[in-house]
Amino acid sequence: MTSASPTGARILLVRHGQIHANVAQRWHGSTDEDLTDAGHVQARRVAAHLARERPTAVAVYASPARRARSTAAPIAAALALPMAIEPDVMEYGIGVLENELFADLTDRHRFFEQASADLSWAPAGGESLGGVAERVTAAWRRIAAAHPGADVVVVSHGAAIAIGLSRLLHDDPRLWTQYHSRNTGISEIVLTPPTLVTFNRTDHLE
Questions:
Q1: How far apart are CA 70 and CA 62, in angstroms?
Q2: Which of 62, 79, 129, 193 has the least CB density, counted as fewest CB within 10 Å?
Q3: CA-CA distances (angstroms) from residue 83 to 10, 13, 118?
Q4: String of DSSP letters for the chain
């Protein structure tokens, strides 16, 4: 979705680099895991890309998860900026269903079906789809307000980014499955008006 003459901060959403759970097709939301060797390579490549393409970026934010911090650290170094931790861009935590295979979440647990049927439903110990949408977009708005007119990098997670985009662009977090991004894929948004400038750019990985 695009709109004419967007204004305000330009937020560059970066999904973290590869982790073992990504390879195994397991859900790690609140589960903490560092990058694989391939993930560290991806982080260095996205850092070099952003240093070339957006050298005037003014801030780098990261989820507190190790995989996000390990991706953000080389970006911050390449841009000569500190790394700020933003808890509200953390991944969708699903409590007792953490570390389950995606196939089992779909078929055995009916997780995706239940999450879409009721935006307030949450697995035991986890979050609701609606709650994640609200916290992520609220964080983006705070970040944008703090850096008017500037480029800002936010290193986050696949589901969190997808849910935030579907809430921002369609006012419906249930559309999040339309916004799958690759590890270290870059999506650029502007919040005023809600604009998806680019989605899931992976030039640095080719």
A1: 9
A2: 193
A3: 17, 14, 36
A4: ---SS-EEEEEEEEE----HHHHHTB--SS------HHHHHHHHHHHHHHHHH-TT--EEEE-SSHHHHHHHHHHHHHHT-PEEE-GGG----BGGGTT-BHHHHHHTS-HHHHHHH-TT---TTB--HHHHHHHHHHHHHHHHHHSTTSEEEEEE-HHHHHHHHHHHHHS-GGGGGG----TT-EEEEEEETTEEEEEEE-GGG-
Whether 154 and 181 have beta carbons less than 8 Å apart is answered as: no
For residues 195 and 97, what is the distance between their CA atoms, to the nearest angstrom? Answer: 33
Please give the Cα distance from 79 to 159 (Å, whole number).
Answer: 26
Query: Two tokens at 30?
Result: 């609140």
Is the separation of the CB atoms in 91 and 28 below 8 Å?
A: yes
Question: Which tokens in the block code for residue 145?
Answer: 């307000």
Query: Does the pLDDT of residue 188 top 50, yes or no?
Result: yes
Token pair recorded at residue 177:
């499955």
For the chain, domains (ranges, CATH) are: 7-205 (3.40.50.1240)
pTM for the full model? 0.95
Residue 7 is predicted with a pLDDT of 64
